[in-house]
Specification:
mainly alpha, 3-stranded antiparallel sheet, two-stranded parallel ribbon
Length: 452
């Protein structure tokens, strides 16, 4: 009996331990209230979970519908992509061919870069066509004003205007190549050899800067004293005076007809002499070498201030503007020299004076060039040709023949009166038809000598 009681006690203790381990509160009034509250809380949580489940079910339905719509759009997009690829294949092929062709000609360079202002930033076929048309119009306008641009304009007329069709790039490329070849013949070699036009512009800008610096250095070297300018003009005038003296000396033995002598006089121009005096004395120093005034404006101002002229200041640097040449003649019947006025000379005398001056000038040219050789034993080294000399009378022809003998000048002249003149060989040309029907020209010569 005692043993069963102990076993029962042990089982009771074990059951109590297990019951306490379950965590069931003691069945008190407070525990009942707490349990009721917990039941209410669990019911609210259950209702919230049920509401969430319903929302998730609705979301699943919506997502499934969206998935079906997206699947349909994906199928439509794939079909559209395949269609557009088929349509774009010719354009892609043309682009590849155009790109390869432009690359062979060295036209790509940095044109397809990321420069926001470059051609690579232009998007859209229509925009490209508009820009190409505008720049082509600018090119044609500038070629109209460019020297030597007519040939290129005629060539560009054969290139049709850029249009909105897919093949508009081909004529643009032809136009580009034509313009580039035209520019290469007009630009310096170190600029024209560059394929990239922007690189060529950079080189051209650098070369222009070098030229401007060189021009500035040369202008600086030219800026000296105005006395140097006057001294240079004086040297040229003295040299010209020596040449005129030699011409007059060579004319001393020239006489023909009623003319006993011919001479050339060189006189100073008073108005230009005032300018030369201002340059010698330094009065024009400030104007001529003023740093902020272009040399052209300075010359014009000097010409207006000291010469009384209004423009053409560049004449100040030409020594020929400071002298005046005058041809004078002296007749056998008098001792005074008179100006060789065409209105007071006969036709033969006027031609003779001009021929005499021409011959002595040629002699001086040959002497300066060391080309004059000794007189040959046969013929003359001097030839004069006169065509259609209808106004020359036999007397005038005699004056010319006299001059030719004096100057050792051979004259060939076509004049009606030459057949009746003396001291010449007259040639007559006769055209006739042979019995065989061929035309031939016969030349007959007749030599006449002067009386006495």
């Amino acid at each position: 009996m005692e043993g069963r009681r102990q076993i029962a006690s042990q089982e009771h203790a074990a059951a109590t331990t297990r019951f306490n381990g379950i965590g069931i509160p003691a069945p008190t009034e407070e525990a009942v209230v707490d349990a009721a509250k917990e039941v209410v809380r669990q019911e609210e949580s259950l209702r919230a979970l049920e509401h969430r489940r319903q929302e998730l079910n609705r979301t699943v339905g919506t997502q499934q519908e969206a998935q079906r719509a997206a699947q349909e759009r994906l199928i439509a997009a794939d079909e559209k992509l395949a269609s557009e690829r088929r349509e774009a294949e010719p354009a892609t092929r043309r682009w590849s061919e155009l790109h390869d062709r432009a690359q062979r000609h060295g036209l790509i360079g940095n044109l397809l870069g990321n420069d926001p202002d470059g051609p690579g930033s232009i998007r859209g076929h229509v925009n490209l066509v508009q820009i190409a048309t505008a720049r082509r119009d600018v090119l044609l306008e500038r070629l109209h004003n460019a020297r030597g641009g007519d040939a290129l304009l005629a060539e560009l007329e054969l290139v049709r205007n850029p249009s909105a069709d897919a093949a508009f790039a081909d004529p643009i490329l032809e136009l580009w190549l034509a313009v580039r070849d035209w520019l290469r013949h007009r630009l310096p070699a170190q600029v024209a050899e560059v394929d990239d036009p922007r690189e060529a512009l950079i080189r051209l800008r650098d070369q222009l800067s070098d030229l401007e610096e060189r021009l500035a250095r040369q202008e600086s070297d030219l800026r000296g004293a105005s006395e140097d300018v006057a001294r240079g003009i004086d040297v040229q005038i003295r040299k010209a005076r020596g040449q005129v003296t030699r011409l007059t000396k060579n004319l001393e033995k020239v006489s023909f007809g009623s003319i006993q002598g011919i001479r050339v006089r060189m006189q100073a121009v008073e108005r230009m002499e005032q300018i030369l005096r201002a340059l010698r004395e330094g009065a024009a120093q400030e104007l001529l070498f003023q740093a902020d005034m272009p040399i052209e404006e300075a010359l014009d101002e000097i010409f207006r201030r000291y010469g009384g002229g209004r423009s053409a200041g560049q004449r100040l640097l030409d020594y020929r503007e400071y002298v005046h040449l005058q041809v004078e003649i002296r007749r056998k019947s008098g001792t005074e020299w008179e100006v060789a006025n065409p209105t007071r000379l006969s036709t033969g005398e006027a031609i003779g004076v001009g021929a005499a001056l021409m011959m002595v000038v040629l002699t001086e040219w040959e002497r300066d060039a060391t080309l004059l050789r000794g007189k040959r034993a046969h013929g003359s080294l001097r030839f004069l040709f006169l065509d259609e000399a209808n106004r020359l009378s036999p007397d005038n022809l005699g004056v010319l023949f006299d001059l030719c003998q004096t100057l050792d000048l051979q004259l060939m002249i076509a004049a009606p009166e030459v057949a009746r003149a003396e001291g010449n060989t007259t040639y007559r040309l006769v055209r006739q038809v042979t019995p065989e029907g061929r035309e031939e020209v016969l030349v007959f010569g007749r030599r006449t000598r002067s009386v006495g």
